[in-house]
């Protein structure tokens, strides 16, 4: 949970990474790999943005 000056902030919107082709959803570890540029395509079906 995010904190700002000791106050709890609640998430009103959840942003998830989901493959538009097969519906695979990235785990926290996979999101980290995506952010690092190590994972650029869906590990299940191979789809990637721009295809």
Question: What would you say about this model in short?
Answer:
With 51 residues, the protein is an alpha+beta fold.
Mean pLDDT: 83
Strand-and-helix sequence, N→C?
Answer: EEH
Largest sheet: 2 strands, antiparallel
Strand content: 5-15%
Fraction of residues in helices?
Answer: 10-25%
Task: Give the overall silhouette.
Answer: globular
Q: Specify Rg, calculated over alpha carbons.
A: 14 Å
Count the DSSP helices: 1
SS elements, strand count: 2
Strand order of the largest sheet: 1-2
Describe the SSE topology.
Blueprint lengths: L2 E2 L2 E2 L19 H9 L15
Antiparallel strand pairs: 1-2
Describe this structure in words.
This protein is an alpha+beta fold. Helix content is 18%, strand content 8%. The chain has one helix at 28-36; strands at 3-4, 7-8. A hairpin with a 2-residue loop joins strand 1 and strand 2 (7-8). It is globular, with a radius of gyration of 14 Å.
